[in-house]
UniProtKB/TrEMBL annotation, chains A, B:
Domain of life of the native organism: Bacteria
Matching InterPro entries: FAD-bd_oxidored_4_C, FAD-bd_PCMH, FAD-bd_PCMH-like_sf, FAD-bd_PCMH_sub1, FAD-bd_PCMH_sub2, FAD-linked_Oxase-like_C, FAD-oxidored/transferase_4, Oxid_FAD_bind_N
Pfam (any one): FAD-oxidase_C
Signal peptide residues on this chain, from the entry's feature table: none
Family assignment from sequence similarity: Belongs to the FAD-binding oxidoreductase/transferase type 4 family.
Source organism: Yoonia sediminilitoris
Name used for this protein in its record: FAD/FMN-containing dehydrogenase
GO molecular function terms noted in the UniProt entry: catalytic activity; FAD binding
Lineage: Bacteria, Pseudomonadati, Pseudomonadota, Alphaproteobacteria, Rhodobacterales
Length: 471, 471
């Protein structure tokens, strides 16, 4: 049984931490980006790993739950405990130092509370790239990005957050500290604790520091938007891009016309590249070595693809500004979606070759439920679709609360049946615990539970996230 | 307590498996590549995952230990149980089917007993590359490669075995099967069991199948060998290669003159590329997209490096044959080492920028013990040195058994003190259990033990590997 934070426990924490460590128990700590649920908790913001360890030890002694709070941008409620004994919300915001940068090694070591954009900036300052890039990069922090194994637009080339981390510093649920901040590229000494902590959503310990992998900055970067006749053609274009451009392919994003229509309807305002809006288009981003210009590579790809009937129209950015304009389209689609207001949004991944069939069958399944608008877009190179369902013009999401669960179940059943995942990059949090139970292999679930019980026997770390709290 | 395989238990296994599943209890199953230790066990070779599960269930019921046996090429004794109750040695050799290849997805699914060279061949057949490449690729099998998180020459570009695996099928220590053979690029649904099993050296379960990641074949491949004035210069050349060639850099191998001298002394015969043998040289391998010839890229790099004083001489391969000749030098060094006979060999990794200092201080530490020849070579791009110590000419390794432990401890202490690892890519097995205990963070060791106890409570899976058996 977990105990709530009591006035006596608060007083104890005030003995342990300096006065600057205490925050008002208000939003943003207790709300989430879409404003759908509210949390509870006593908010503390320690500034060092030793302070984090001291808080955790105090909580462990009293069986008080801890909810780690990073940038607060998660979409599945992993940062919010709605019910049960009032927890400590442990914010990483004051652990925001870049500890060291090693340009020769392509390595950066930082606190877990550093904002992603600040990591990107620190890499740029030494002529390197930290390639993790996603919509919330101005507020998401390293600890949360690692705890959710964040994805974003460059996974195709550089992998997800997991692939960009070499080492971790973690405060365990008993308050001991695992000093795993290695700068090594290779270290086969025992089980892979790093990757176990990454993606554990704060349920096995608190990440307080990380060694991150930087990469060389490509000599020539560029982008193109190409209209494709179908999702199948987009997949063939992806394979063709692989044989032309290889590892130089940084992103391959699918966009449906619905995204353009939403942007035209509610903004944000973007420059539309096509004379006639295609049903499907892709945004291709490349970064190439010295001696090969991005425009040339993209023109070569376009010509080959046009000859093969895989593209019908296209725009190749002739400058970094034009490249940014193309990206503005892609990056503003989530904001347009928010303005329209989705009935249900999904973070689906599929085996690549199953994507076209999923799009077709998903549309049929939704049509069987009712008349909706579908905006399907996302990271096609990773088989990751953000498949969002919206009301028809003039109606609002509130009109469809009854259909919402039907839509969700239909799409998740379909994805699962096709070998897909119902959480490609957002994680389980508390929102998808039921999905994990419904779709997860029972042997896998037993292993998850065994690991949780072994590493957090008292169950104080982010209880109810990923795994349901034992009754 | 574990029970030995008895005649009654053998009879039970003969009821479960067809007669073709039983092998003679001889080498190679009970020996290792360098012939240093002998194992024991009753050898079975099931042909399907269900047969593996049946064997494991029988063993679990009787508390009989299981030693998984893959290609048998491991260098740390993970495949050999020397003492204690006679185990079942479970060979994967009959699970050797490529299950499916998905060229569009860059995915291949196979049994764990497939030999690495056969995976490479299957990828080539569909114009793709499976980039894991190492000396033992003609006999090493997928299960062992994953269980040891194998490295090799292309880790710099493509990552180690872990980075090339999307999903696993695993028989757990209770005989249940985790069906995790996903073809997904992204799947954030629960803890990362895949990466926990990868590198666990068969102590948490038996990998029976894997989904592997293929990559596009680079349009132009090539190599160069360049003489560098020092390890420091080699590191600066590596950084320069990153800015010129970026992801196109496939391998960056350091070679000391001692390697050339050994090849000249005992063979194998190779074509020596330099007119005057340099103290240090590097082998650089590249794979580039369409529109950029490897020779041009390597020439550009050489000119820039020569101008900066980072290289003094160099040979750029003008054909695939010449590229192979350069690689033959690198790949025959381990065989020359074997013929000379090392007193002690090491698989060290270091933070990249610590490599030159380690080489200097390592040499001093060895000189303080006695007069030896040192062959230091390896994957500089990964900070991974194969640092091997040999007797002076006319003497043999048998003359230095007393010094052996001194050498080992001096080098391992030094690497550990500089933030390095004493097992970069070979794993812990049984040979390095003491090293893990000596150098491992105690909090890390407690976590390893908790995970082992949680996932294999009876302790039947490869007992004594990675972690010492409880007394």
């Amino acid at each position: 049984m977990l105990s709530p934070v009591t006035p006596a426990f608060e007083a104890e924490l005030r003995q342990i931490l300096p006065a600057t460590s205490f925050k008002e128990d208000t939003a943003p700590y207790l709300s989430e980006p879409r404003g759908r649920w509210a949390g509870q908790g006593f908010v503390v913001a320690p500034a060092t790993v030793d302070e984090v360890a001291a808080v955790v030890k105090a909580c462990a002694a009293e069986h008080v739950a801890i909810v780690p709070y990073s940038g607060g941008t998660g979409l599945v409620g992993g940062q919010l405990l709605q019910e049960g004994a009032k927890p400590v919300v442990l914010s990483l915001e004051r652990m925001n130092r870049i500890r060291a940068v090693y340009p020769t090694e392509n390595v950066l070591v930082c606190d877990a509370g550093v904002i992603l954009a600040d990591v990107q900036k620190a890499a740029e300052d030494v002529d390197r790239l930290f390639p993790l890039s996603l919509a919330s990069e101005g507020s998401a922090r390293v600890g949360g990005l690692l705890s959710t194994n964040a994805g974003g637009v460059n996974v195709l080339r550089y992998g997800n957050a997991r692939a960009l981390c070499l080492g971790l510093e973690v405060v365990r649920p008993d308050g001991t500290v695992w000093h795993g901040l290695t700068r090594l590229r290779k270290d086969n000494t025992g089980y892979d604790l790093r990757d176990l902590m990454i993606g554990a959503e704060g349920t096995l310990g608190i990440i307080t520091g990380a060694t991150l992998r930087l990469v060389p900055r490509p000599a020539s970067i560029g982008a193109a938007m190409m209209a494709v006749p179908s999702p199948e053609a987009a997949l063939q274009l992806l394979a063709m891009a692989g044989s032309h451009i290889g590892d130089g392919l940084s992103a391959f994003e699918l966009i449906h016309r619905q995204g353009f229509d939403f942007l035209a309807e509610v903004g944000p305002d973007v420059r539309q590249p096509f004379t006639e809006l295609p049903e499907w288009s892709v945004l291709i981003d490349v970064g190439l070595p010295k001696g090969l210009a991005s425009q040339d590579a993209l023109e070569g790809l376009f010509e080959a693809a046009f000859g093969a009937g895989l593209v019908t129209d296209g725009v190749i950015a002739q400058s970094l500004n034009q490249r940014q304009e193309l990206w503005d389209i892609r990056e503003n689609i989530p904001e347009a979606n928010r303005r329209i207001g989705s009935i249900s949004s999904h973070d689906i991944s599929l085996p690549l070759s199953a994507v076209p069939d999923f799009i077709k069958r998903g549309g049929e399944a939704i049509a069987a439920i009712g008349a909706f608008r579908i905006n399907c877009f996302g990271h096609l190179g990773d088989g990751n679709l953000h498949y969002n369902v919206f009301p028809m013009p003039g109606l609002s999401r509130a009109d469809f609360m009854a259909e919402r669960q039907l839509v969700k179940t239909a799409l998740h059943d379909l994805a699962h049946g096709m070998g897909g995942s119902v959480s490609a990059e957002h994680g389980i949090g508390r929102l998808k615990v039921g999905d994990l139970e419904r779709y997860g292999d029972p042997v896998k679930l037993a292993m998850l539970r065994a690991i949780k019980d072994a590493l957090d026997p008292a169950g104080i770390m982010n209880p109810g996230a990923v795994l349901r709290q034992p009754a």
